Amino acid sequence: MNPFTNLMKALLAAILVMSINVPSSGAILPPDRAAAWVPGLMSTGGIPNRTAMYTTLQASAYGNGSQDASAGIQAAIDACPVGQVVGLSAGTFTVNNYLLINKGITLRGAGPGKTMLQKTNGARPRTSPMQPVDPGTYAYDAQPVIIIGPNRWPKVDESTSQNLTADGSQGGNSVTVANAAGFALGQFVLLDELSGASWQPTPTGFPSSAQVWKGDRVAWNMHLPMQQWQDDNSFSDATGPYDMNGTARTPPNAMSWFSRTDRPTCEIKEVASVNGNTITFTTPLHISYRKSHMAQLTRYTGDNVHVKNAGVEDFTVLGGADGQVRFEAAAYCWARNIENTQWIGEGFAVNNSFRVEIRDSYIHDGSWPEPGGAGYAISFADAASEILVENNISINTCKVMVVRSCGAGSVFGYNYTDDSWDFDTPTWVEVGINASHMAGPHHVLFEGNYSQNADNDYTHGNSVYITFFRNWLSGQRRSFTDAANVRAVGLAYGSWWFSFIGNVLGRQGQMSGWVYQDPAMAGNNANWRDKVIWKLGYDPERWGMYADSQTLSTTIRHGNFDYVNNSIKWDSTISDHALPSSLYLTSKPAFFGCRTWPWVQPEGTTKVYSLPAKDRFDGLDPCGNQIEPGSTRTANKPGLSLRYFSNPLMGTISISYTLDKASDVRLAIFDLSGRLVRSLASGTQAAGVYTLSYRRGSMPNGVYLLQLKAGDRTLARRTIVL
C-alpha cells in the first residue's frame, strides 16, 4: 500500500478523534470513573442512510414463508457491492439457516411487522403471555437468524499476543509493546490483563468464613472452601480455584467463557498508527493496563478480522435458537428499527466488537424467561467496547441486558426497560439495567433510561466503574406483583466505584412501606429487607452476609431524588451541584422531538417528563405525530391497558385488558383499511382485568389492528397473524 495513503489515514483518524466534542463530567465524576463516551457511530455522524439498492427480494418468490429463503437471501448478500442495500419486501421470509453479513452492506426490510424473518425450526413461541415452552422439552436447531461478522465464532489469534513494556495509562491513546511487527493502521485489537487474584477475606457472615479469589479490580465467584451450587469452579485448594478436565487440573472454565483465561478486564481498540513499538489508538484507554498484570495486545487475523459498516434495518425477526441477531467481530455496524422477539439465548448479542449501535428497536417476549442464559434481550461480551444502545424498548424477558467481560466506553441511553422476570419465580424482582453477569465490565454509562431498578449481580463475578446518570428507577415492574428483592437500586458484592448521579428513585405517592436505605447497609448486621430505595453490598445467594464494605465505601450517591424522603440528596464531599444535561450528548437528541430534555430532572420542580421509547410502548405521542397503531404489542393509558399474544402454532390469539372503572367497552379487530374483521367484546363492564382467547379461523396471514374502546378512551395495537 502507498505509505502516503497510510499517513493520510492516520492523520484523518487523529483529526477525527480530536474533533469530537465530548461533554465534560467536570467535578461530578472523579477522573478514574469518567470516560470519553463517544460510542456507536457517533464519531462518523451516525448510521448512514444508504440509497443505492442492489436488489429487492420478494417474499412471494419464496411462498411468503412456506419455502426456505435462506439461500436466496444469502446469495443476494454475497453479490451485493459494498455500500449498497439488499431489500426485503413486505411479507414473510423463512430463514432456517443463518444469514452471514460479512461486508459493509445493509439488509433492509419494509418495516417491523411488514417484513418478517422467521426461523421455523428454532425457538418456539409462548403459549400465552406468561406461559413459555421449556426448550428442554423439544428439539430445535441451535442457530441464530443473522450474524454480522466474518464467521459464526471469530476469536483472537493468541499467537500474536505481545506484552506491554510499560503501563498503558487510562486516558492515554497509546501503548508500547515488546514487538509491534504485524500491527497496522486500521486493525481492531484486544487489550487485556490478568486479574492478579489471590485468596482474600469475605465479609462477615459469608458461609464457612470462606475466602474469595479476588484481585484489586476483579472478584471471581470462586471460594475456599468451594461453595457447592454457587461457585463457578469444581474445587479449590490453597493454590487457587480449579476445574477437572479429564484427569487434568486446569483454571476454571468460567474464566474463559467471555474472555481469554483470567483476563476479564479488557477492551477492543482501533489502531490509528504504529511507530516503532508504540501503537496509537483512535480512542483513549478507558482503564489502565498494567505491566505487573501481564497486560497484552493481541490481533485478530485471517478470517477473524472485523467486518465494518454493515447494518440491518426495518424488519421483524423471530425464532433464533442460538441468539437471534449476533454481532461477532463487527465494527461500526448497526441494527436500527428491528422488532426482535421469540428467541433462545440473546435477542441481540455483541461480541468481540467495537462501536456497534443498536437503536430504535423493540426487543420483547423472549421464548424462555428463565435464568441460565436462554432469555437475555441484549448482551455484550468478549471485550466488546464503545457500544451504543439508544432509544430502544427491552421488555418481558429474563434479563433486559447483560454485560460480560467487556463494555468499556459503552452507553446504554434513553431506553425503556421493564418486566424482567424468572418463570419459576415470577414474584422475584430480576435486575433491571445493569452491566454485569461475568467478571470484568468497566466504564459503562447508563443515561436517561427508565427501568424497574438498577443493579449489578455477582453471579459470575463483579463489575467496576459503572455510572448511572439521570435515570428513572421506579422500584416496580409494570406487569407483576413484586414480592422478593424489591428495590430501586441494588448492588451485589464486588460492585466497586459505582456512581449514581442525578437519578429519580421510586414512584410519587406509591411508596407506602418503603424505607430509604436497607438496615444491613449499617455494616454490622445482615438484616436485609425488601422495599428499599438503596440495597448496596448484598449477595442474593448468601443473605446471612454483611454488606460488602468496599461497595459501601466506593459508591457515589449525588443529586438523586427519591420519593420516600421527597427530597434530593447530595454527597457532602462533592461541592458541584450543577448537574450537566448529559455525559455523552452535546445537545438534545432529535428523537426527543418536542419533548423536554433532559427528561429526568431531580433538581427541578417536575422530576420526570416523557421518554420517547416508553411513549412508543404506551402508544402516546405528546408531540402530536401519528403513531402507527400497534407499534408494540402492549398499550397503556392511565387506568387502561391492552395486551395480546399470538401463538401461530395453535392458531390462537390471547388478549388481556384492564379497566380502572366501569365503562362501555368495545373490543374488535380491523384490517388496515379500517374494515371490521371480528367483534370480540361489547357492552358495559366493571373495573377489572379481562382475558379472552380466540381462534383465527379463516383469517389470512397479515397485519391487523386490535382496538379497545372504553368510554371516551381508545387504545389500538397492531397484531400479526401468521
Briefly say what this structure is.
With 722 residues, this protein is mostly beta strands. It is 6% helix and 35% strand.
Question: What distinguishing features does this structure have?
Answer:
single chain, 722 residues, mainly beta, Immunoglobulin-like, six-stranded parallel beta sheet, 53 strands, 35% strand
Structural features, described:
Residues 1-20 and 626-634 have low confidence and may be disordered. Strand 15 and strand 16 (248-250) form a beta hairpin. The chain is mostly beta strands and 722 residues long. The protein has a 17-stranded parallel sheet that branches. The protein has a 6-stranded parallel sheet with strand order 4-7-22-25-28-31. The protein has a 6-stranded antiparallel sheet with strand order 8-19-10-17-18-9. Helices cover 6% and strands 35% of the residues.
Write the layout of secondary structure elements.
Layout: H1 3-19, E1 53-57, H2 70-79, E2 85-88, E3 91-94, E4 99-101, E5 106-108, E6 115-118, E7 146-148, E8 162-163, E9 174-176, E10 188-193, E11 198-201, E12 211-214, E13 219-224, E14 235-237, E15 240-245, E16 248-250, E17 265-275, E18 278-281, E19 296-299, E20 307-308, E21 311-318, E22 325-328, E23 330-331, E24 334-341, E25 345-351, E26 357-359, E27 362-364, E28 375-381, E29 388-390, E30 393-397, E31 402-404, E32 411-413, E33 416-420, E34 445-447, E35 450-451, E36 467-469, E37 472-473, E38 487-492, E39 499-501, E40 504-505, E41 515-517, E42 532-538, H3 549-554, E43 556-558, E44 560-562, E45 567-569, H4 612-618, E46 634-637, E47 640-647, E48 652-659, E49 663-671, E50 676-685, E51 688-695, E52 702-710, E53 713-721
Parallel strand pairs: 1-2, 2-5, 3-6, 4-7, 5-21, 6-21, 7-22, 20-23, 21-24, 22-25, 24-26, 24-27, 25-28, 26-29, 27-30, 28-31, 29-32, 30-33, 32-34, 34-36, 35-37, 36-39, 37-40, 38-42, 39-43, 40-44, 41-42
Antiparallel strand pairs: 8-19, 9-18, 10-17, 10-19, 11-12, 12-13, 14-15, 15-16, 17-18, 44-45, 46-47, 47-48, 48-51, 49-50, 49-52, 52-53
